Amino acid sequence: MKINNDKTIFWNYDKNCIEFVEQTLLPVQYNIIECDRVERLAKAIKRLEVRGAPALGVAGAFGIALSCLEHDDCNMEAFFKLVSDDAKYLKSTRPTAVNLSWGITRVLDKIKSSGTLKEARETALMEAEAVAREDEAMCHSIGNYGAEYLPDKCTVLTHCNAGALACYTWGTALGVIRSAVKAGKDVSVISCETRPLNQGSRLTAWELSRDNIPVKTITDSTAAFLMKKGEIDAVIVGADRITPDAVFNKIGTYMHAVCARYHNIPFYVAAPYSTFDATGKESDIIIEERDREELAFCGNKQLMPKSVPAINYAFDPTPMELVTAIFTEKGVLKPPFTKDFPIA
Ligand SMILES: CSC[C@@H](O)[C@@H](O)C(=O)COP(=O)(O)O
Predict the structure, then answer these.
(1) Cross-strand bridge partners of residue 34
(2) Which HAMAP family is this protein grouped with (predicted)?
(3) Contact by Cβ (8 Å): 254, 192
(4) ipTM of the complex
(5) What is the mean pLDDT of residues 74-85?
(6) Ligand 1 within 6 A of 143 CB?
(7) Which residues pair with 236 in a beta bridge?
(8) How confident is residue 255, by pLDDT bands cut at 50, 70 and 90?
(9) Is residue 159 a contact partner of residue 256, using CB atoms and an 8 Å limit?
(10) Which of the listed residues 87, 106, 139 is the one where a domain comes to its end?
């Protein structure tokens, strides 16, 4: 498998389009997709070809740059209307991950005062690049803060993929692990497979094994037993949205947090300020529900009787009282988290 880039999503200046790693094909195939239409980007986000909160922020930002290129042959008023329609459409593709709408709004706000199409296009692309570069710096900073919290030798359990593939590069939860390893710590990882789309067994295991960081995959339901056996020293996960009362992350995260508390294991969250939603409330947040087919089939193999419906939530909220600390790019937040709640 030839890997020619360590970035998950980036702008191709020769072809004036977005390129991204197609994550549904991993770990079997590593393909980079060229995307020059907003419609294609929306499909990629819905299908999880591009996924993970910070990567969605970058995708949304570049999506507006793409939208600015798509619309010409119109006056500025019509142009802004078309771009903000695209923005609304892109935001609707995944409602829970706040970074997507954050990245889109940031670029949209920046182009508002542009007087010409050319100015709007250049501004949009510059701002989207800034979002991407800042994401890289933030991940390294989160990693450095979080690494301090890991013992010199430890086993960390993680859920889903909060790695380089979920960001521009490096990762949040996996960024902490990478930074700890870089600092000389001996870290092994237990990667929960993360049913139904297996971001843990497909993506986290792939990323870490490429970096020669010891990783083993378990079924999600094995986590509590390993905790009971004393084989997990800490849990670290990423987040899709953090409100003052809950951390929203991949379905199953809540279960790990409850089990970690029962077994006295620290439960850490690693996320940038762009994932915080200071005005949100757990009960008001829309939890994305996905197709029955994701549960009912594994490839072509049918796993459920045709007549049985599925409940397929993509995320769950973990109450703040179960969170030991949150690693951000500006430092480590500890309970009570409502004090100085971050605003992006
Ligand atoms: C740094 S990524 C944090 C989260 O986005 C990640 O843990 C997660 O839940 C991703 O879900 P996904 O549905 O694969 O986009």
Answers:
(1) 19
(2) Salvage_MtnA (MF_01678)
(3) no
(4) 0.98
(5) 95
(6) no
(7) 268
(8) very high
(9) yes
(10) 139
- 65 and 167 part of one domain: no
Rg of the chain (C-alpha set): 20
Catalytic (active-site) positions: 240
- Say yes or no to pLDDT of 218 above 90: yes
Enumerate the β-bridge partners of residue 155: 188
- pLDDT per position as a tens digit, 185-213: 999 999 999 999 999 999 999 999 999 99
Q: Are residues 66 and 150 in the same domain?
A: no
Task: For residue 283, give the amino acid letter.
Answer: S
Ligand 1, atom nearest to 173 Cα: 1
Same domain, 182 and 33: no
The verdict on the CB of residue 167 being under 6 Å from ligand 1 is yes
Percent of the chain residues topping a pLDDT of 70: 99
Ligand 1 in contact with 240 (CB < 6 A)?
yes
Residues 58 and 190 in one domain: no
The mean predicted confidence, pLDDT, of the chain is 96
The boundaries of the domain holding residue 98 are: 9-139
Spatial contact of 41 and 90, defined as CB atoms under 8 Å apart: yes
Residues 191/217, Cβ–Cβ less than 8 Å: yes
Q: Which of helix, strand or coil describes residue 122?
A: helix
Q: Alpha helices, DSSP H only, in the chain?
A: 38-46, 53-70, 76-92, 98-111, 117-147, 173-182, 205-210, 223-228, 253-262, 293-296
Residue 221 reports pLDDT greater than 80: yes
Check whether 73 has a pLDDT greater than 90: no
Helix axes 98-111, 117-147, angle to 10 degrees: 140
How much distance in Å is there from the Cα of 80 to the middle of ligand 1? 31
Atom of ligand 1 nearest to the CA of 238: 3
